[in-house]
Design a protein that fits this description.
- The complex is a heterodimer.
- Helices cover 22% and strands 35% of the residues of chain A.
- Chain A contains eight helices and 20 strands.
- Chain A has a six-stranded mixed sheet, sandwiched between helices. In chain A, strands 13-12-11-14-20 form a five-stranded antiparallel sheet, with no helix packed on it. Chain A has a five-stranded antiparallel sheet with strand order 15-19-16-17-18, with no helix packed on it.
- Chain B is built from eleven helices and no strands.
- The chains are: A alpha+beta, B mainly alpha.
- Chains A and B meet through strand 6 and helix 4 of A and helix 7, helix 8 and helix 11 of B.
Amino acid sequence: MNGTPHTMIEITGLTKAFGSYTAIDALSLKIAKGEFFALLGASGSGKTTLLRLVGGFEFPEAGQIVIDGQDVTGLRPNQRPTNTVFQSYALFPHLTLAENVGYGLLNLRLPRTELAARVEDALARVRLSGFGGRFPHMVSGGQRQRVALARALICKPKVLLLDEPLGALDKRLREEMHLELREIQRAAGITFVLVTHDQEEAMSLADRIAIMARGRLLQVDTPRGLYEAPKSREVAEFISNVNLLDGTCLGHVGREVRISVAGIGDIRLGSDAAAMTAGAKVTLAIRPEKLRFVTAADAGENRLTGTLRAVTYAGDRNHAIVDVPGLARPVLVTTPNRDRLLSEPQTPGAAVTVTWDSTAAALLTD
Amino acid sequence: MTSRSLTTYAIVYLAFIYAPILLLPVFSFNDNLFVTFPLKGFTTAWYGEMAANAPMGKALRSSLLIVGPVALISTGLGLMAALALGRSPIRFKATILGLLMVPLVVPTLVLGVSLLTLLRGVLGVQLSLATVAAGHILLCLPYSVVILLARLDGFDRSLEEASLDLGQSAFATFRRITLPLMMPAIVASLLLCSVVSFDEFLLAFFLSGADATLPLYIWGSLRFPAKLPSTLALGTCLLLFSVCVVVLAEWIRRKGTPGSAAATGL
């Protein structure tokens, strides 16, 4: 990299329809060189279609895809500087692991010894030295996954596309692979585009995440940005649990702003305050772990009172559901288990007071 | 109780199907010109007579002569049809597949008469083994398409996409990936088409010229009681051969299946 962030993938006005169904709707996106980028969305959101368009397995009705300055919109997969790790791995069952890994080098017509050396090197990099002679059905799912990765990386692509690559692995193996993927990506300096429906996977792997729905991008941001400053109700609700409060802006008080929320009363917002004018209708998003239970006397200005409906014990934390008169939906409160005494409120039906800091809530702008 | 009656039913059913077939080898070794019980002595004389029968040998050679081309051409055409139906974006696939399957449901009698009318009446072609072979290709094509299409649908399409992604052209992908994965089905199709052509009677009856195929010869020889035992000997040889072919075809087909399951990660 030469100081300025260099764009690797630039997508402009991309549209793809299957019959009357619009899978990708006039989508534009820039992905930087060396970036680990995740496309996150529910099934049917268009994330896989977008990946297939970038890989050259589908062709758009309108729009343009530029990779590293080259317009690849009409190019076939074998003409693009991309390689793909398929969801099913797509290892060739009639070839050995070594032949699978070396498949991308066939066109180079390398001398036999050099081909073997490169393949062995690629296998070693995914910790599969000595496995070259085996066939795909003779190794485990995690090993197949790593072969697929080695096979795609041996061609030294500018962009590696990963279509839910860890979907078929169990939780523990998936977490191991997360670390490995990040290391490989950093070492190779290749731009990764990952499709996933698992938000934890996207957040722990990606530099930036695009949230997709109905063939469009709802928000493109860092994991922290998406979690702490969601722009819309849909994004806030897609990423983890959230409490949404509808209110009216009353005016500024110093650097904070006063907001009247039906069913709770007046509260203060410390962040995003400058953007608001008195009388505006606003929606605030507060994550459950930013709320805490206090005694009525200890509560600050931001407070609500309600009735505890239920508490779910989850080991390291408790998930509480609090019914608040005047609010349509119950408030979710997640509290850490700081000691073993279960000192947080436990009894369903108990009257509880909940408080939070003025900087805990995010203002939804869309 | 139910289980026992089902077992009895199964045994009776199998006996009904296979007992007549088993009579063939039994009588082929029976030292009696007439095919009746009780059995007399053991003899291999009928096999000797069979080997010495020149017209029978000629009919067998005629049949074997067309089996190869019929199997190869049907399977070749079937492969092209299967690839078009399974891999290309053509329209009206269901209609095309239906039309390809028609020879399976149209009575062979009707096919035979209409082909005869076409070849003799309309085109004025001389009947020969070539016209028999043409009829057999028509008959074999649906079998070939069904076998090959099932295999093509059975393996993960992203295998071909992966090959393209790794730099190979569409043709190289076909040669390196699609064709090897199709090979068990191709072999099965070749074997099945061979069997269909080898014992087909009706079309051969309508479309053959001077050269009789083996089924035609056997049918003709049934009218002469003296020839019956050597025909039984031939039947026994053919039975043994077809069992071998069917077992071989099924073995090859099954051998191909686990590989595809592993490929899709299932």
